[in-house]
Task: structure prediction
Amino acid sequence: TSNGRDIFSQLIYGSRNALAVGLSAALAVAILGTIVGLISGFYGGWIDNLIMRLADIALGLPFLPFVIVLAAFLGPSSWNVVIAIGLLLWPNAGRIIRSQVLTLRERGYIESAKVSGCSNFRIIFLHIAPNILPLSFLYGSIAIGWAILTEASVSFLGFGPSDVISWGYMLQDAYSSQALSLGAYIWFIPPGICIVLMVVAGFFISRGYEEILFPKIKK
Result:
């Protein structure tokens, strides 16, 4: 590169940031979506209405502008992407988990738990939560690709941290140094391919897990 840094070393080092952001975002989406879906589906009423309206608001917010505004307030950081993904993708998981909880709370074993004096907390997290964890993992795996792509986009636009090497930062560095006009394809093609492969891998993980969770899809 123009700074004399080795491209291969940056690729390897950038993979650590991509995996950290992707897995952290997946964990954030799974936790937020699960908790919100459990509470909304179990209690219903005004709590359910309030949470679903918040979900509508979150679904209406655009990704990149939201991350850019977040970076302006909190400072440039890869964790801003994790926070943004968690705040904007939880409605997808929360809605599906909520619909599942609405059916589970009417089951006989839940009624038996209520009659035996179990607290709502115990019923939610001990009797209902284990049945919807596969859905949580599914939507968490979907968030991996979104997080990696968003982090690369933010870094390419120059709103990422300048002291962290990432694939998006490599693309931004190549663009600012006019690598395309100079014919230095080795500068920007490898990080681009890595981003594509990582996002596709996250997609295939979610699809494979979906087929395990819903076997009828294979047919």
User: Anything to note?
Assistant: The mean pLDDT is 81. The first helix runs from residue 7 to 43.
